[in-house]
Amino acid sequence: MSTIDRRTFLRRSAIVAAGTIGATAGPFSGLIARNAMAAPKTAANNGGYGPLGPVPDLRDGEIRLWLPQDFQYRSFGVRNTPLTEESTITPGRHDGMAAFQWGNKIRLVRNHEQTQPNPVGSFGDSSKAYDDRAPGGTTTLEITPYAEEVESWVSLNGTTFNCAGGETPWKTWLTCEETPNGVDQQRSFLIGPDDPDDLTYTQKHGYLFEVPASRGPGELEVAEPIRMAGRFAHEAVAVDPATGIVYMTEDDFAYASGLFRYIPPNNPFKDKRIEDGGRLEVLGVIPKGAGGPVTMDLHTNQVPGTTYRVAWIRIEDPDPAFAPGLSNDEAARIVYQEGESKGAARFSRLEGIAEWGRRIFFVSTEGGGPFNGSPPPNSPPFPGSAGFGEGYGQVWMYDTRTEKLTLIFESPGPDVLDSPDNVIVSPRRKSLMICEDSPLGNKIRGLTRNGLVFDLALNALASGADEFAGVTFAQGPKVMYANMQSNGITYAIWGPWSRGKL
Q1: In sequence order, which residues have a C-beta less than 8 Å from that of residue 92 and are 6 or more positions away?
Q2: What's the pTM value of the predicted model, to 2 decimals?
């Protein structure tokens, strides 16, 4: 999800100059070797791939990315261009995405993080929109592996602020609304003092929605929210392949965020879908010697390698109604506040999440620090709010088998890792792939089993201010697909993956 630029590049540079680089990185328990150290981004020949350099786009020759030598890419699915299967213009703000093998082609289901105010309302067929005043949703693209041929259509509409999400083992895409603004309160997500307050929504928002990869052109249906999975600032999801439990991150800009999970009432592997009516829980940690969960700040003063026992706290009111005029900040925190009162752990802006080997990896975008008494790199997001988080990012791991939570990495500064957002596990299970969402110079970076951070791609457009999102692979490691959010571009990227740490 894009920030509202409450960080500044100059303040961050000052932190780095003060000597924060060089802190230790912790172990990836089980997946990652123990006692790893955070390394400079150029260490080990940049993860084996070598330095990045400008590479022309095979679509039109423009240089949009810097990549390692021998890598290539092609852009496609660009905003404001027509979808191929209907008379609809491609929406912008491309975000989370998943790739599904579809015969000899690939189907990409792609989020569009669009929100009100928007006088046009929903894109696509408004009669099939969940809320015809809401401009977000998903598009599906069917492509040849290297994107020489592209077909595209609307697969979900009438939702709002569709940020990240996650794929399921039964070939569906779970898309997340990152604002709970809705018909009951009618207040905007405040970006500036001139934003209108009246959103004219017709439905409540802040939910998960499920989109089948099998949904083809002309098969759009009115979406049904999974209400019992919570009404809050949903960011991303990962599914436990053994139980079907859905783990969900919350990205609250102004206050603490929680790690949630939704336990479906049905067998989603059999039914090929998640039903409403299940149980919502939020994670709490149990300090040594404590008999139950104790509310703790995990976004700061944490040592990489620290492990906690956890408890899952039931949320009794996962789908609250909001009072008219309630601000987005106050509405977004209501569900988490119930858990916090019972001992829920406090994180700073939880965004990307991924599963491998029944371990759940997730990032805290502004977790970390404090940095030797220096001023925090972030300022409060909105007038009157406290803000929450002053770091460059943390990576956490929850082991579903042992029910232990471990901090496996904390960035010591932006030259190592800056504001991690979307995250996946690389196809050969050697690294985590992390998209950055910082003010300048955004990259796709890898975090290896031994704690090495390396660069794979650099945004070459507009000083790199636009964030990467939606990194995904289809079956096998041959082609990586990724989005550039504000520019509204999707990329297919390929090259000698086996040369390095992916």
Answers
A1: 79, 80, 112, 114, 486, 488
A2: 0.91
Nearest to 244 by CA among 304, 189, 315, 166: 166
The whole-angstrom separation of Cα 483 and Cα 318 is 31
Closest Cα partner for 159 from 217, 98, 226, 108? Answer: 226
pLDDT at 477: 78
Compute the distance between CA of residue 211 and CA of residue 172 in angstroms, rounded to an integer.
Answer: 6
The full set of domain ranges for the chain reads 9-207+225-499
d(CA 49, CA 316): 49
Indicate the SS3 state at residue 420. strand
Who contacts 326 (Cβ-Cβ below 8 Å, separation ≥6)? Answer: 185, 187
Mean pLDDT over 429-447 rounds to 93
Cis, peptide link before residue 196, omega less than 30° from 0 = no
d(CA 267, CA 286): 30
Tally Cβ neighbours within 10 Å of residue 341: 10
DSSP 3-state of 241 = coil
Q: How buried is residue 350: exposed, middle or buried, by Cβ count under 10 Å (0-12/13-18/19+)?
A: buried
pLDDT the model gives residue 385: 39
Q: How far is residue 201 CA from its own chain's centroid? A: 25
Q: Give the neighbor-by-neighbor strand order of the sheet with 420-425.
A: 52-56, 63-68, 453-459, 443-448, 431-436, 420-425
- 332-369 pLDDT, tens digit per residue, is 999 999 999 999 999 999 999 999 999 999 999 999 98
Cis peptide leading into residue 324 (ω within 30°): no
Compute the C-alpha angle 356/101/485, nearest 5°: 75
In this predicted model, which residue has the larger pLDDT, 407 or 388?
Answer: 407
Cα of 8 vs its chain's centroid, Å: 21
The residue whose two tokens read 């950055």 is: 436
